[in-house]
Amino acid sequence: MVTKLKLKTKFKFVPFSKKQLQVMTWWTPESPYHDKDTIIADGSVRAGKTVVMSLSYVIWAMSNFSEMNFGMAGKTIGSLRRNVITPLTTMLQSEGFMVRDRRTDNYIEITRNGITNYFYLFGGKDEKSYQLVQGLTAAGFFFDEVVLMPESFVNQCTSRVSVYKGKTWFNGNPEGPYHWFKQNWIDQLKEKNAIRIHFLMKDNPSLSKKVIDRYERAYSGVFYQRYIRGQWVVSEGVIYALFDKKSMVIDLPDDTRFEKNWVSADYGTQNATVFLRWSLYKDVWYCTDEYYYSGRESKHDKTDSELREDLDDFYERNHMSKSVQIILDPAAASFKKELTRNGYFVKRAKNDVVNGIRATMSAMDTGKIKFSSKCKNLFKEMNAYIWDTKAADRGEDKPVKEHDHAEDAMRYFVYTILENKSGFVAW
Question: Which residues of the chain have pLDDT under 70?
Answer without folding.
Answer: 1-13, 420-427
